């Protein structure tokens, strides 16, 4: 399994296809943008041109943005080229300067100055390079997994994986501001937030056969709730 281009949880869900789970993978992201105080301002569904089968994830992102009373944007960019000078914003062409101004209008902090083009570095995409250059003191994070349960509740999961044992995932305080951003979004949309952790076996086997669920609230460290086989998680 290619550790950096796949995810064991997504792979299991794609094979087994249980009802109620939605996610964006590959070159597609459901992004939350907020200010430095982790107050969410915008939900964006961002896709590279190579992304496929994104309709369900896009519709879920739009639905959750509506529930939260937040602006929603679809942003598409060409991921086959090294440089981009524009995107497709809400189905209309937009220059990078126009994209920056649109973000400012909906309340996302931006930097001053013009952004003529964005160059795709080896470690990211040209869109991410524009984001780093054009946006100001922001928080941005993606929604990894959405689950609509049979009782109508919707849960947002942050997926975590590492070599730590299943019940010993340590807290990483640098993650907390992004968790706070998701919590703010979930509070606005009446959603539940959980962290889902699985172990990566050495050398790099992403093994979701057992998962641990953590609760999180701002101002506290993640608290371990339950550990269970993946099959129990899917059915629960």
Commentary on this structure:
This protein is an alpha+beta fold and 236 residues long. It has 2 domains: 24-141, no CATH class; 144-235, no CATH class. Helix content is 26%, strand content 35%. It is built from 6 helices and 14 strands. The chain has helices at residues 8-16, 55-68, 96-105, 126-134, 176-189, 230-235; strands spanning 21-22, 28-35, 40-48, 72-77, 83-84, 86-89, 92-95, 118-119, 138-142, 145-148, 154-162, 192-201, 205-215, 223-229. The strands form 3 sheets. A 6-stranded mixed β-sheet has the order 1-10-11-12-13-14. Strands 7-6-4-3-2-9 form a 6-stranded mixed β-sheet, sandwiched between helices. Helix 2 (55-68) crosses helix 5. It is globular, with a radius of gyration of 18 Å. The two termini are 27 Å apart.
């Amino acid at each position: 399994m290619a550790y950096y281009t796949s995810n064991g949880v997504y792979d299991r869900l794609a094979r087994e296809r249980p009802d109620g789970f939605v996610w964006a993978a590959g070159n597609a992201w459901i992004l939350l943008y907020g200010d430095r105080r982790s107050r969410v301002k915008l939900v964006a569904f961002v896709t590279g041109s190579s992304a496929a089968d994104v309709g369900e994830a896009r519709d879920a992102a739009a639905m959750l943005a509506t529930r939260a009373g937040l602006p929603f944007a679809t942003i598409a960019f060409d991921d086959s080229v090294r440089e981009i000078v524009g995107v497709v914003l809400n189905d209309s062409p937009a220059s990078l300067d126009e994209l920056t101004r649109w973000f400012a209008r909906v309340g996302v902090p931006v930097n001053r100055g013009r952004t003529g083009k964005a160059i795709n570095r080896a470690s990211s995409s040209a869109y991410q390079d524009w984001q780093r250059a054009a946006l100001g003191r922001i928080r941005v994070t993606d929604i990894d997994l959405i689950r609509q349960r049979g009782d109508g509740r919707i849960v947002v999961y942050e997926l975590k994986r590492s070599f730590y044992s299943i019940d010993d995932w340590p807290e990483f305080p640098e993650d907390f501001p992004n968790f706070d951003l998701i919590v703010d979004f979930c509070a606005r949309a009446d959603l539940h937030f959980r962290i889902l952790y699985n172990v990566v076996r050495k050398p790099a086997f992403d093994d979701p056969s057992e998962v641990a669920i953590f609760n999180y609230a701002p101002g506290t460290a993640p608290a371990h709730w339950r550990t269970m086989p993946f099959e129990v998680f899917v059915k629960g």
